[in-house]
Model the fold of this input.
Amino acid sequence: MNGKLTPSHLALISLVLGLLMITALFAGCTQSTTSTATPAETAAPTAAATPAATQVATPVATVATAAPTTVATTATPAPTFTPSRTNIVAFTAASLTGASPTIASSFAAAYPPDTVSFDLDGTQALKTQIENGAYADVFISASNSYTNTLNKEGYFVPNSVKTMTTNYVTVILPESNPGNIQSLSDLAKPGVKIAMAANTVPVGTATTAVLNNLANDTYSQSWKNQTISNVVTYETSEPAVATKVSLGEVDAGFVYQSTANAAPSGTYQSLSIPQKDNYLQTYTIAVVNQSQNKAVASWFEQYMLSAAGQNILAQYGFTAP
Amino acid sequence: MPAEKTPMIPKSLRPKNYRQRLTYLIAGILIAAVTLYLALPIVALFLRIPPDMFFATLHNPDVISALWLSLFTTSITMVVVILVGTPFAYYHSRYTYPGKVVVDTLIDLPLVLPPAVAGVALLMLWGRVGLLGRYLNMFGISIAFTTLAVIMAQIFVASPFYLRQAKSLFEQLDPAYEQTARTLGASSMRILAFVTLPMTAGGLVSGAVMTFGRALGEFGATIMFAGNLPGVTQTMPLAVYVGMEGDLSVGLTISVLLVIISFAIMIIVRLVQKREAGHA
Done:
């Protein structure tokens, strides 16, 4: 993005123009080219079709039944997976987006042939989905209060709710630091553009708490009010805040420490928030009551709590509880 | 349901044989199925929120600010699209020029382009490190995350509804009317004001109302390009989205408001079309 036209840029532009010309030709003949029948929303609960009875008893024992892949083709109720292979769906806080591919591949390696796939969104969105009947095997929340609400409503297997990891709030700035922010007090400078998460998003709740703490201990109420008036957008998930910062569209953003730690160097600068004023967000993991694969779901939970799972989380900047 | 339909038909028109009866039955089932499929979600929405809760939530400041912001931005969008789009569509339909077919395609592009992509594209152009935005930024002008960005996103996604309509109206209008007026000595402004526009007014109004409706529902491009700040960029669809993750009653109340406004829009379009049909 340095504004210079390189030959590869020209090639790309001519490709786009070429495509435009072709579509233009087609559009000349037929008027509207709108309808493409989209298949019905790919439902999450495909795994639900797998009968629970066929689950193998021990995690590592791969009871390889003869040629299980061919069985799938003859089975009728659209099973994506052979009975011996279970894919669990983990509704997962969006702040784990970065870590999720590593978790998925290492879980698959540790527990063949079972696999996990992630539905990543703000915890508040996942909570609403669960309450409205979405299927999940595991729920990983970035907020204790949402976990407690769902637990009281009976959505989790009793005693399966465990603390998984923790995370602090931090401030990230684009590497070029367009707002020339040197300290937390600069966040209140007039004209600074700040992105934070909406109050319903766990990191948004944490950010509000941090601003209150900082206002009470170090800065002033007017610092807090000025900082909040500099907020230009309330994003609906933590990664969305980070994106606005990495694009350079805002001068600062409130995200989790893990995002700042795990980003490749040269993506952000960060301003740490003193621990006494910070807010330690607790992530929990729980097995969902309606899960058709409770055994695999609880293996996954154990895996995340084991040294192997905690190592991955540490590698992505999370703090062990 | 379909069985009830048959007896209401006058005796003389009743199906005379089995095959005709079967056709009526299938037609009735299909009509009932489509009607229910479209109507039931709306019914469910209205049933989910008790009226007293609806009226209580109407006073929620977030609801009020989202309502006014939406009405304000969509009105500006509509005015801009009419003022720029009408002469554009007129000249576009009256003249042939090189690349006209490309322009035609570009007009249709926002209809097929996912709005989220439109939002990202707008951000890449007008964002403060964007292709043009970086130069504006030198002058201290920034567009992303402002109410202006909301309007620009709406114009991008909603203008095709008006432009297509206006274009085809002007194309279909018999040039003989304008030529006659010209031979009688009318100036081109006078022709536009007293011949062309009155003859296309009904279609233009319904195109403008459709643009208004599409702009009102704009979500993807807005949240990408303008962000989500109550009172500044949080329009009604964004407030529904945030509401559904937090205060459900806010989400439901705004949804009901949007359904009511949508119905009003369709009634206006119908009335205008009916009036037009009456004239013809």
